[in-house]
Amino acid sequence: MEDEYKVLASHHNEAMKDFELEGTWWLPGKEGEPLPGTLSFTQDGSQLKVYGPLHPLEEATSNGLQPMTTRTVTERVVYGTTRQDQRVTLFEVHGHYLPGMPSSEETYRPGLILVGDHAASETFTEVQVEIEHLHDWAAVPDLVKFRDRQFCFNVTQKEALSAQSGDDVIKVLTSLLGNSNGITVNFKQHSMISVATPSGGEWREIFEEKVRPLHDLMILSLGRPLAMDALYLRPDAPGEEKGVLCDAYLDVLRPVSRPGSIFSYSAPTLYTAADHDLGEVVSNWYSSYASIRPILTLLLNPYYAPFIYGEHRFASIFQAVEALHKEFFEGRDMEKAQHSARVEGVIGRLSEEELPAETIDWAKRVLTGRNDKPLWRQAQEVVESTGPLGEHILEAVPKISRMAASARTGVSHGGANSMNSSDRYWLGEVLLWVLRAKILTEIGIPGMYEKTLTRDRYLHAIDQIRS
Length: 467
Fold this sequence. Notes:
Blueprint: E1 8-9, E2 19-26, E3 35-42, E4 45-50, E5 71-82, E6 87-97, E7 106-115, E8 124-131, H1 134-137, E9 144-147, E10 150-153, E11 158-165, E12 168-180, E13 185-201, H2 203-222, E14 228-235, E15 246-249, H3 278-299, H4 301-304, H5 310-328, H6 336-352, H7 357-368, H8 375-384, H9 388-396, H10 400-413, H11 421-442, H12 448-452, H13 456-466
Parallel strand pairs: 1-12
Antiparallel strand pairs: 2-3, 2-5, 3-4, 4-7, 5-6, 6-7, 7-15, 8-13, 8-14, 9-10, 11-12, 12-13, 14-15
Helix pairs in contact: 2-3, 3-5, 5-8, 5-10, 5-11, 6-7, 8-10, 11-13
């Protein structure tokens, strides 16, 4: 039981907070020529400032002139060691320098900062990420318990979830991280998503293909922007050796945390692990992700963007409706034979009017290619497919599909009768609820339509459209 009263020390990069590290920096193969400099990470981005030329000077040309044209470079890797002896690796380091002139100061921008090791590989085999509200969303068990009039805690790392997608192993891990000043101990429970991929991948691929899917699922479930609070990457290591799990920093969007529980009556939450088995949901999500990714790219734009204008927001949401319709519904207005007969009927009538042949040919080309459903019907079919939710919407706002299609046309093509910003906002809000509930239902989560009907924000949006 002794371990039950220990706390893990941590250099946890909580909330990707701004930092500044002084140290020495060098290019691969130039370990003997380090330069002093400062690495910083702020809301404005990451920056490496070195005091001297990072690149060797080029010799003068045959005519004795020095090359004075600024050269733009992207260094694959830059290594560093901080004053605290932390090993740092910088990837995709962009900058400019004068190859023929010694400089006292140069500035570069790294794409990725890795603190904890000098990575020998650009391939990573594991990523861990802490996302806002993960603990509650994944129903992670508490490691701190109150019994016998005292608080007891267990520092053994626990798995709240383990699922597999192909060769990837997805886990939700939780542990206590803290520090002590000798007489006072502070600790906090942290929960992380871990994705281990034996085949590995470069850092952008890991971020897009391993982190983004679960970030998307959480945003879809909770209906709010979610900050990425911490990120770790494990570089591949030679042989059987396991690489070091390093703190990672990159210029991700860091939305301001929104106060309030995800379980409150006014929260836009639709799904948490308390509603349905998370392991099953995650497995279904990964197996479906490739097909629904185009929908999510459009649907979740308003959540990922730090700021978005109303027209952009609505256009993105309605385009998500169109993308969802394309994935789950028949896009043709009629069967091919029926459509051909319809076109021939129209062309026959036009021929009777003795119109010029080129006009009739043009009409036939246009009509033959237009067997798609109109926008309002696409929206109508999506709404109707949501069972009790769709029934509630159509009873409250019978013409919502035509209103939404008209608003979309107004955004795309303008016109004197474009919908005002307020009405367009609330239409988009209702469509967001429809799309979220539809996608979560499609991956096997029951009761999403019924739950939407209990959400205060959904009901308020309906009231705003009706008023």
